[in-house]
Specification:
The chain has helices at residues 5-8, 33-39, 48-55, 70-76, 97-114, 125-130, 155-160, 188-200, 211-220, 244-252, 273-287, 318-326, 331-347; strands at 41-46, 78-85, 119-120, 137-144, 163-167, 203-205, 225-230, 256-259, 292-294. With 350 residues, it is of the alpha/beta class. The chain has one domain (20-347): Metal-dependent hydrolases (TIM Barrel, Alpha-Beta Barrel).
Length: 350
Amino acid sequence: MRRAWQDSCQNPLEGASAGPIKTQRSRGLWASNEGHALLAITDAHLDIAWSSLRNGRDFVAGHPDAAAGLPDLLAAGATLVCATLFCAKADREDETPQELAERQLAYYDALPGRSGGRVIWPADVMDVGTCVPGKNVCLVGLMEGCEPVSEVADMEEYYRRGIRVVALTWNKKNRWAGGCSHASGVTAEGAALLKEIDRLGMVHDISHLSRASVDDLLATVRGPVIASHVGSDIVFPHVRNLTDAHLRAVAQRGGVCCLVLYQKFLAAGRATMDDTKRHLMHMLELCGADGVGIGSDMDGGFGRDQLPAGIRSSADLPLIAEALSSEGVSDSDIAKIMGGNMRRVLTAVL
């Protein structure tokens, strides 16, 4: 299978000195509409199908209660999204994970036609390269928990259907690995599945894994690794946030650690933009500007009131760019964090 990631996902920290990254004062580009369009935002984690089907919302038209509809993504200038296949929580008692996965895949398959071509699924390298901020959004599939996988060989069919990023489990332990609520690591079956994911040239997502499972995965896999939606455990301790050692390890492999916007992972009580900045700046110190991204998880089982104050929907994602600019992060590094880093990793496996 393809191995393009080995050339494109180089270690961003190689040769770098320890300590905070060097920054320069931005020219305020991101405060303008032109700057917002130039961001070409990548959101590394949205539960589009799960949220739409579970809540009866129309992603294409948008919904007053939804934080991540297509109109909001287009308004933000988002061009690339990791759209999840999430089957760890069944919507119907009589539905298997495989049946739920098929319903969600069918939802994604219908989006290009329903959106008049504004949604591109499953996206390839050419699609991503020609996507225009404000006009189109490319979707890449992310399997959030391998409950739909009955046998290791099944992963190739999910690859064919558009899945390019894989997380072994959600919060709980399954047959493949221990989730963040458990102390157990990757199982023998999980190790075999990791090798198949490598063979297919897919990306590994460690966001929901236990500490032991992350260690096992990093010691096993050869392919690219990301954390699609996490925070810093040092800034705010939480089992869903990554330790400094794991943040560094992902960056050293050329991967990307993407900040989640769920307030329970960011701060005690209502999270603010200052809390968001604290996580991002700490991640930048550890990972460098090539190793940080955004994975909002908007509509991931929580409402607008659990996003950081001032952020109501995907349309507000450019506010994060403005916050980074206020901290002296350069325009070129902001463009990487808001979209370029995840585009680099994903286009290498499309």
